[in-house]
Design brief:
The structure holds 3 protein chains of 3 kinds.
Chain A lengths: L5 E3 L1 H13 L5 E9 L5 E8 L6 E7 L1 E3 L2 E5 L8 H12 L1 E4 L41 E7 L5 E7 L6 E5 L11 E7 L2 E8 L7 H5 L4 H8 L7 H16 L5 H29 L3 H22 L8 E2 L2 E2 L7 H24 L2 H7 L7 H6 L4 H5 L7 H4 L20 H23 L20 E9 L2 E9 L7 E5 L2 H6 L1 H5 L4 H11 L3 H5 L1
Parallel strand pairs in A: 1-4, 6-7
Antiparallel strand pairs in A: 2-3, 3-4, 5-6, 8-9, 10-11, 11-12, 13-14, 15-16, 16-17
Helix pairs in contact in A: 4-5, 5-6, 6-7, 6-13, 6-16, 7-8, 8-13, 13-16
Chain B lengths: L4 H14 L4 H38 L15 H10 L11 H19 L3 E3 L2 E2 L6 H9 L1 H12 L3 H32 L4 H6 L6 H4 L3 H15 L11 H4 L9 H27 L11 H9 L2 H20 L7 H29 L1
Antiparallel strand pairs in B: 1-2
Helix pairs in contact in B: 1-2, 2-12, 3-12, 4-5, 4-6, 4-12, 6-7, 7-10, 7-15, 10-12, 10-15, 12-14
Chain C lengths: L7 H24 L24 E4 L4 H4 L2 H6 L13 H5 L5 E9 L6 E11 L8 H5 L5 E4 L13 E3 L31
Antiparallel strand pairs in C: 1-4, 2-3, 3-5
The chains are: A alpha+beta, B mainly alpha, C alpha+beta.
Amino acid sequence: MKLNNIELTFDNFADEMAKLKNEKHFDYLVTIIGEDFGEEGLGCIYILENTESHERCSTKVIAKQIGEEYVIPSVLKLWNAANLLEREVFDFLGIKFLGHPDMRRLFLRNDFVGYPLRKDFDMSPENNKFPETDEPESDFTSEWNLDAHGNLVETKHRLFEEDEFVVNLGPNHPSTHGVLRLQTVLDGETIKHVYPHLGYIHRGMEKMMESMTYPQTLALTDRLNYLCAMHHRHALVGVIEEAMGIELSERIKYIRTIMDELQRIDNHLLFLGTAAQDMGALTAFLYCMRDREHVLNVMEETTGGRLIQNYYRIGGVQDDIDPNFVENTKKLCKYLRPMVQEYLDVFGDNVITHNRFEGVGPMGLEDCINYAVTGPAGRAAGWHNDVRKNHPYDLYDKVEWKEITLTGADSMDRYMVHIHEIYQSLDIIEQLIDNIPEGEYYIKQKPIIKVPEGQWFFSVEGGAGEFGVYLDSRGDKSPYRLKMRPMGLTLTGAFDKMLKGQKIADLVTTGATIDFVIPDLDR
Amino acid sequence: MFDFSIVTKWFDALLTQTLGLSSFWSILIECVVVGVLILTAYALIAIALIFMERKVCAYFQCRLGPMRVGPWGIFQVFADVVKMLIKEIFTVDKADKLLYCIAPFLVIVASVGTFSFLPWNKGAHILDFNVGVFMITAISSIGVLGVFLAGWGSNNKYSVISAMRGAVMMISYEMSLGLCLISSVVVTGTMQVSGIVEAQNSAWLIFQNPFVWIAFLIFLISGNAEANRGPFDLAEAESELTAGYHTEYSGMGFGFYYLAEYLNLFVISGIAATVFLGGWMPLHISGLDSFNNVMDLIPGVVWFFGKAFFVVWLLMWVKWTYPRLRIDQILKLEWKYLMPLMLLVLVLITTFEALV
Amino acid sequence: MENKDKSYFQGIADGMKTLATGLKITLKEYFTPKSTEQYPENRKTTLHVSKRHRGRLVFKRVTEQDLADSKIQARGLQLGDYKCTACTMCEKSCPNDTIKITSHMEENPETGRKKKVLDDYQYDLGDCMFCQLCVNACNFDAIEFTNDFENAVFDRSKLVLHLDKEVYKGGSLPNLIDGGAPLEIGKFNTKTK
């Protein structure tokens, strides 16, 4: 969607945002985009959604400058999802959010100098040497506020008491699915707090993309959540195509829909497997991996990749589908249906699994929306948040399928949503696979792709939630600012809320069923 | 049926009479020989078990398992043993050195101790007290100490949590384990291991009393927990606590835990086979004398190993099927389900014995 | 263990049933065909690698069919020549600076027209992220990715390839370029022969 920002000022910002949420029911904060607007200064764009009508709007506010510092009032009290999002903006642009109790860096090291997404950031290699010392870490967080005279005042908060038992789960830990560090405050086996520390695989993709041409940016998206390579690239390709006004042929849409669903099956199979493995059921894990192999084989014959698919490009797809693709996909669908029951038999329906999953990591509908827990985790609480239904792209409004929502709001239902979604994906594929129309698989573009001026946001339903890409173009061959809404970031932000009072084993369970992948949330 | 005591008597006579050694020297030599035999058997069985675990687990998981070291991968475990022996042994800086160092030995001592109680064949048992069953439970509980000290001594937060879990779980499950053994004592009327086997001459224990079946199943479950194996492996739950109490051990320190884990599996299976499945006693069906004679032709040691490895296979099947339980669920299972059930079964078994 | 709407014993019985189902499934799988493919034992026999898999970049050579193409004829290329014109489109499109092209200008003595001639086409496999942008950028169909994936070497410098100097003959495995052994979805070939 092309953004028509509601322009707000520093003074009316807090009131207007509260009105948007409370009166106009914009209760889902999709993402916060921090941007250096150049002449205008630093600022933020907030993308909001009304969860009843699925209408979206965006607001823009320019930060107020106080001395050297830039400040914006925090919206944390309205949307809890803002917690990590505002920290991210602070990390990259140095905008301090007034009233946010935890203004620490999120991705970069605490001793990092400067704010990389500011346009005046010094990129010279001499000033950006790789640090060889340990990262200094404080047990305190900072809260910034304005006093009566308009000066910035800092308040310190303790993360945990001196004598509390703190265990760092990660950054290298078998069940964090990557390099996530969860600083966990324990009372015996019971969890008191979980503080996520991110950035161990932060690659600065958004910064890199600002100096890349549009086709080059595509290559990076596959390296986000490597289980949803197609979805990530789809979102980026989608936003560029929308901005350029490219009309796709029916064949491209068919291929993209099928590939997206194959990728979803791939992701969900791995999810079912790793969920089982985190519970100690290695056998169930290997059954899923065995069948995932077939999905990957089908995709690889066409795309040439298994993790890094590299298939979509601006204006179409990389290559036409493989001659055996239709036949292989049909075989796969036939093979996979009975196998899903096998996972349930060996793991999902097991009484031990039910005991481990039920009531674990609970998060109800209201909190899910407030914390922006999208994807299967949100749908397990009954939130109709599937982007494919709410903002259909490609053929999702033409095929028949059901959006799976359950009401348990716990790990068990998160697991079951994945099971049901595999069936739905198979349904979608089977409806399309026989009817792929003839046509162009790639619509030829100019050698140098330039996107007209403007701001766009386009999102797709990834395997673990909504994946959106915001693009601010100034008419160049590279994006002026490109921001991705990762699937996992808000999920991680909800951890503390979900796990308070639960057992340490439940942290692993919740982490397993919430389905985050670290390269995606670190970017 | 071949009686192994002929061999032991011959050897004793060789030392005392033919060589004319005093009873002190002959007993010393006998102890050394038996000790060496035990340790060799211990190591060999561990290697066999590790290989078996890998292949069995692979087959349950649609894999082939190790295939590359030697034909069908049979030398894989030897390669691993060599690797483990030549690994550097390091200690943690701020560990409690004494506890850290003795913990693996406690575990291995408990494991070898209980291992020595297994009756291999008629007349071939190393330790055979009149309170044998009692001693088995006593010695096996030393292993808990090893787990607990290792976790505490390592100065590692994961290890401490794991040690707590391990200790709580193993102490709890000793309860129903002991009750299962008592039920067999009730039926056979003796606590001596050889006596228990002899008492199953007419029929194995599970065929003598229908309620013993339940005791047998509970024994397998709680034995699995005692051996720290899935679905009760939460002390070393690798997805939560990396490796649990032995996170900080390397080389043979870790090797001891690894060995003990597999041997405990074998010991539990061996005791189950001895107490409930008749140990080395062949399958006898009263009234079918010719059948019994044919069965007697198969040596007792084959019977024993056959039964023990069958039980091992059963436990592996269970381990590679189920997910892990949570600590409170494990304790709930023991105290709310298994223990009361076992008490009830004990009453039923005794009543049955009194009536029949 | 007990469910609220079920009685205590009903709960236990249902729980036991699910446990038995699990055991049944694993026992069934114990005897079904396995899924391990035995690489490297199968590398010359039952190995399948997708034709489109991106293993490494190679120069395309002029084939018999190409000779019929008027553009190729116009450039005066012979059978087996590479098609690269040193236009550096691929070099510019590469996000990692994987490709480095050196060339010089040469004057054709007959026509007097100046033409770029390729001196060296250096491709660093160790830096490549297999994004296929170079292939997309090439207007002369001069480069392509092959599925030859056995690229491991002991020294990083050996990964720096000079594509114009080598004549690529299809890699280390027979028939691999065509995909190797046939692939059937839903089945694994665990054999080595």
